[in-house]
Amino acid sequence: QVQVVESGGGLVQAGGSLRLSCTASGLTFERYAMGWFRQAPGKEREGVLCISWSGGTTYYADSVKGRFTISRDNAKNTLYLQMNSLKPEDTAMYYCAAEYRYCSVSPNYWGRGTQVTVSS
């Protein structure tokens, strides 16, 4: 059974940083593309960043370029999202998701999310 679990969310002031983590079990992590998505209250879910099984990065949201970085540690079955220069508009529930090999806007496996709140 595949399990995807996010952690690291919290409350931070504008301009601050947070690092989200995501662990995945029940799958061969190194063969999966891993992505971060977010959903703000009253808005549709949007893709943020994705990293393929081979390490290629895809940005889904132009608004995070230069501020957010995605990385993975296959030895730890863990995905990271480093978020710097946070803005109030980054406030959302952040979800981690897994798809076999290549990045997808509709991955198969999802976590339950971790809340990020940025105060102004």
What is the β-strand count? 11
Order of helices and strands: EEEEEEEEEEE
Share of β-strand residues? over 45%
Structural class, by secondary structure, is mainly beta
The number of helical elements comes to: 0
Largest sheet: 7 strands, mixed
Percent of residues in helices: under 10%
Low-confidence stretches: none
- What is the first-to-last residue Cα distance? 40 Å
What gyration radius follows from the Cα positions, in whole Å? 13 Å
For the residues shown, what is the average pLDDT?
96
Judging from the principal axes of the Cα atoms, what is the shape?
A: globular
Oligomer: single chain
Short description:
This protein is mainly β and 120 residues long.
Topology (elements, then pairings):
Layout (H helix, E strand, L loop, with lengths): L2 E5 L2 E4 L4 E8 L6 E8 L6 E6 L5 E3 L8 E6 L4 E6 L8 E9 L8 E2 L3 E6 L1
Parallel strand pairs: 2-11
Antiparallel strand pairs: 1-3, 3-8, 4-5, 4-9, 5-6, 7-8, 9-10, 9-11
Q: If you had to describe this structure to a student in words, what would you say it looks like?
A:
- This protein has 120 residues and is mostly beta strands.
- It is 0% helix and 52% strand.
- It contains no helices and eleven strands.
- Strands 2, 4, 5, 6, 9, 10 and 11 form a seven-stranded mixed β-sheet that branches.
- Strand 5 (46-51) and strand 6 (57-59) form a beta hairpin.
- The radius of gyration is 13 Å and the shape is globular.
- 35% of the residues are buried.
- The model has no long low-confidence stretch (mean pLDDT 96).
